[in-house]
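seq:
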Amino acid sequence: MSFFTKLKSALGNSKPSETKAVLDTVEAITNDIEHDPYAISDKNVLYAGLNELGGYYFFQTVIVGNFHVKTKVGGQLIMIGKNFELKLESDSVEFESDPTDVKGRSITKIDFQIEEEDAAKITNSKLNELVLTCKKHEITFSVINDNKEN
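struct:
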């Protein structure tokens, strides 16, 4: 079972059958999902990974939290590190968030296409933050558990 399939199953149904009246926090999200987060913001947790499929590289992200969007114009992700900045465009211009069983919590899967040489750069760089821009939303995530020394 893939990482994203496990993540979706940990969150329950994509359609809320019975919403729980819970005040959602980053701590609650990380406790509910057994995978390590890549980055966090005030009200959202970003799970991410670099993948290759048929010679094409993707930075796959899943945002869990109060971020809820439906767009036909795509999004951008800016990766910021020490002496490093890279802007990625979403692979698809159309995507939308799915609700979860927890009131106010959504899950949004966005893939960003990345060139092979840029994939090597982010693998070897110490990232500090990620800035996601989509429609009128801008979320700054602080990268966690990144111990590279570049």
